[in-house]
Amino acid sequence: MKDIDIYDFDKTIVPFDSGSLFIGYCLIHYPWIIVYVPVLIIFAILMVCKIISFTQFKRVCFMFVPMIPLNRAVKGFWDRHESEVHSWFLKRDKSREIVVISASPDFLLDDIKSRLEIKNLICTLHNKKTGAIIGENCRGEEKIDRLYKEFDRDEINVVDVYSDSLKHDKYIFSLSNGQCYHIVKGEKIPFNYSDKFHD
Question: Which of 24, 106, 130, 199 has the most CB atoms lying inside 10 A of its own CB?
Answer without folding.
Answer: 106
